[in-house]
Amino acid sequence: MQDFHTTKPKGHVDFVGAGPGDPELLTLKALAAFERADVVLHDRLISKPVLDIAAQSAALVDVGKAGFGPSWKQGDIDALLVEHALNGNRVVRLKSGDPTIFGRLDEEIEAVDAAGISWQIIPGITAASASVAGIGQSLTRRGRNSSVRFLTGHDMQGFADHDWNALAQAGSVAAIYMGKKSARFIQGRLIMHGADRTTPITLVENASRPDQRILATTLDQLPTDLAAAEMDGPALTFYGLAPREAAQAVTEFNKELA
């Protein structure tokens, strides 16, 4: 007797980096993942042009998180990933920038792994790389800094603590993600540990996008200048870097063309 019962094949999950927002900075591998996807679970900060490309072949589901605001619970995102994949779908889990940097990637991989679902990571251009290109600098420079720190402004417990004593040393460079709300906290910790108040601070809002803005300030003036700038888009904060004048001019020129 023939058995007509069939087991539905398991799907697959691609953890894809959406880059900083400019669709031209997507990798070819990310585009290929979009083309074969059935559903895309995406973060809140993914730019509309990138989502428009993804939507050409897949259904979009917003599972965004907001710092200090209403958000999807991580467990619910994990469960949705597993549900779609177990239903036989090719799933793209689309994360802003690069999924391996402050992207809560490990929790989602562990959930998919536990369900026996195949997966791969497709890296993207992280905000620090796009932002430092936008200010015409490099993250490391011979004679200035042989290392650079990638920091988060806040974690699950609130404002994140770091090795402030090391950061306060002359020549230190750090790229601070999600640092706007924690700007005054960061300023206070650094000054308390002896950082020079004139240390350059640069914020890049909407890096790589047509509405990119650059705010050049100092550690001493950081909270004041940030409040006056009224930045409401995603921003990357550089500690120890100032924009080159030529890069600032290019940003202003691009805004005139937009």
Automatic annotation (TrEMBL):
CDD domains from the UniProt entry: SUMT
Domain Tetrapyrrole methylase residues, every copy: 15-222
PROSITE patterns: SUMT_1, SUMT_2
GO biological process: methylation
Transmembrane segments: none
Enzyme Commission number(s) from the entry: 2.1.1.107
Keywords: Methyltransferase, Porphyrin biosynthesis, S-adenosyl-L-methionine, Transferase
This protein's pathway: Porphyrin-containing compound metabolism; siroheme biosynthesis; precorrin-2 from uroporphyrinogen III: step 1/1
One Pfam short name: TP_methylase
GO molecular function, one term: uroporphyrin-III C-methyltransferase activity
Entry-linked InterPro entries: 4pyrrol_Mease, 4pyrrol_Methylase_sf, 4pyrrole_Mease_sub1, 4pyrrole_Mease_sub2, CobA/CysG_C, Siro_Cobalamin_biosynth, Uropor_MeTrfase_CS
PANTHER family xrefs: S-ADENOSYL-L-METHIONINE-DEPENDENT UROPORPHYRINOGEN III METHYLTRANSFERASE, CHLOROPLASTIC, SIROHEME SYNTHASE-RELATED
Family to which this protein belongs: Belongs to the precorrin methyltransferase family.
Name of this chain's protein: uroporphyrinogen-III C-methyltransferase
Lineage of origin: Bacteria, Pseudomonadati, Pseudomonadota, Alphaproteobacteria, Rhodobacterales
